Amino acid sequence: MPNRKKICVIDGQGGGIGATLIKYIQSRYPGELEILALGTNAIATAQMMKAGANRGASGENAIVRTVSRSDLIVGPIAITWANAMLGEVTPRMAEAITSSTAPKILLPLSQEDITLVCITTEPLPHMVEQAIDVAMKQRV
Hints:
This protein is of the alpha/beta class. Helix content is 38%, strand content 19%. It has a 5-stranded parallel β-sheet with strand order 3-2-1-4-5, with helices on both faces. β2, α2 (42-50) and β3 (55-58) form a beta-alpha-beta unit.
């Protein structure tokens, strides 16, 4: 299906957040979207591929090149912060993600020494469900 919308799911470290997002997207919209797993490292990409992504790639160049050609970017908020995820998110990655014209749905999850205020704390599955609902309302 060449006309399927491309959703980039970006994650790092162990890829657990990205894998959860992909499982939910695939269960809710099976075969309707092309899901690209973009990991800041190979382990994250492998976990997201196991979760059902259509294609995957790892590292800075893969992320920088792919986000400019996507219809939606989904991931934890830290993907937009230079040097986040123990340094896995490079400044070039963060710039490419935030500069992409694709809409971004970001989960307020981070292991950084940053506190986001005025955000309710929800379990990951609830946040994933809300994120995908928002994305689909934008008619991605």
